[in-house]
Each structure stands twice: as C-alpha cells, then as structure tokens.
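Suppose a colleague, Dr. K., hands you the sequence of a protein chain of 237 amino acids and asks what its three-dimensional shape might be. Before reaching for any lab equipment, you can write down a predicted structure in token form. Begin with the sequence itself:
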Amino acid sequence: VDIKEAVEKIVTGRIFDNGIICSGEQTVIAPEELYDEVMTEMKANGGYIVSDPAEKEKMVTALFPGGNINRDLVGQTIQAIAKTAGIEMPESTKVIVIPEDASNKTSLLRKEKMFPVIVPFKYGDFNEAVEIALENLDVEGKGHSVTIHSENDEHILELGERAPVGRVLVNQPCSLSIGGTFQNGLNATSTLGCGSWGNNSISENFYYKHLLNITRVAKIRKNAVIPTDEELWAEED
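The predicted structure, expressed as tokens, is then:
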C-alpha cells in the first residue's frame, strides 16, 4: 500500500469536523517495519507527535479527566485542546498524534476520541494487528466500523471475518466514506447500525427500507417436501 496516500486519507478522516464524528479514525495500527515512515507522513500532514511522557500524561488528563471523555473539548480546535493540556503546539497543527504501546491494555487512549486526536500502535505480524483492533473494540466501538489500508485480499477478508463490526472500509477515509459513497456502494446515511454487538436492531447503514412496513403474503407450496433430520443436517460435499 502507498503509505503517503494512506496516511493522508487517515488524517483527512480524523480531522473532519474537528474529530467529532464517531466514525473518524481513532487509532492507526501500523507494521513495525513501516512505523517510522507512517510517523514521518503524520508529521508531513500536520501531525504534532506527543512523544514526551510528561506531555502525554498532560494530554491524557485533559482528554479524559477522571477516566471519562472531556465533553468541553469534544469537537474543539487543536489550540483549545493544547491550552487545556498546557502544551504549546504550532498553529499549523492539524492532528494530535499520541503513540501508545499495545501492551497497555487499559490505556484511556483506546477509548472513543471525539477530537482531532489519533493514537498509533505498532504490530509485528497481521494477527497481532487484528488482536490490537479487537482489544480496542472491546473497550469501545464494538459493532461500528474499521478501515484497512491494504492490497492484500487475504488480510482484508480475515479482518472482516474476525472484527465484530458492521462495516470494513478498504483504502478510504472512514468518516467521509462510511455513510455511503458512489464509489463504495454503501447506503447513504447519517445513522450507522451496529447490530447486536452495539445493542442495535440492525448492523448496516440505516436507510429508507428500515422505515417501510412490508406485508408478506405466504401461500402453501404444494410440492414442498419436509426434509428428514439426516437430510437437514447432512454435511455438504
């Protein structure tokens, strides 16, 4: 995958509307051999990397005081967040990048972040990447959506089979594409179903068909044969 193009899409999706959209990219799970390149591109796209432990602590405290999301900062600007955290950031900053260690299972940074803030994780093999994503979803977001930037169909399919989400976007900025586009074929909506994972009745994009009352007329099929238990439960060839 083209790292430059992928990171540009990730940042675009994260900073839209100051990150208030719940479908905005929350984390970046990058392979360790490409991690430095990803971080370089983050900087090139206006990222401020919070690498100093003291700054990181200030930022986490500002974003999640008492362990809960800071409602006063939801959808606020970079400078408003920086001021609250007591950190100086360049006016040109577009996104705050706070790296986290995948071994920190209880990190508050795994939670939903409704600000222009994104959290990179590093992985060894693809199985580890999926495990990190699953751990994040277990914290918050189960049933919602994930995005993968890849040309490997086996990896894309594996993620779709393992992730408890209603949507897997491929090579797209999540917040700008998850509600449906002409290119991806998802139903156009502003309401995303999260299935039983998220205590919803649907797991797809909500649209007009969910508002229709449909009457189904059922007649007896005269030639229908009730299968035996052996036929019903037989393994397919």
